[in-house]
Amino acid sequence: MNGWGDAVQYRLLTTAAGEQFSVPEYILRVEGAGAGGWQLRYGEWTDYADVAGDAAGALALAIEEMTARIEYRGK
Predict the structure, then answer these.
(1) What distance in Å separates the CA atoms of residue 74 and residue 6, rounded to the nearest whole number?
(2) Closest C-alpha among 9, 7, 24 to residue 64
(3) How far is 45 from 42, CA to CA, in rounded Å?
(4) How many CA atoms lie within 13 A of 11 on its CB side?
(5) What residues does 46 pair with on adjacent strands?
(6) Between β-strands 35-41 and 45-49, what pairing exists: parallel, antiparallel or unpaired?
(7) What residues form DSSP beta bridges with 20?
(8) CB neighbours (10 Å) of residue 47?
């Protein structure tokens, strides 16, 4: 179990491609002409680009880093 429990709020997000994800409050979806990804906004802002259209994989990386930052810095 992580140290922040249910402190982070999640929301349902639908991408331009129609995929649905449960996304933490500190992560935003960024979509533009032919490119998409996630942006972690906790501490420094960090981008996680979809690789080969894998939005889920990029989101998982962003959540992993968010979790580490919250455990290190606190919420």
Answers:
(1) 13
(2) 24
(3) 7
(4) 8
(5) 40
(6) antiparallel
(7) 14
(8) 11
Q: Name the amino acid, one letter, at 21.
A: F
Q: Which two tokens stand for residue 41?
A: 């906004």
* Token pair of 64 as six digits: 């992993």
pLDDT of residue 25: 96
Report d(CA 39, CA 4) in Å as an integer. Answer: 20
Of 31, 11, 28, give the one whose Cα is nearest residue 20: 11
Give 3's strand partners.
none
49 is written with which tokens?
């680009």
Backbone torsions φ then ψ of 36, nearest 5 degrees: -150, 160
Which residues does the chain have with pLDDT short of 50?
1-2, 4
CB 69 within 8 A of CB 46: no
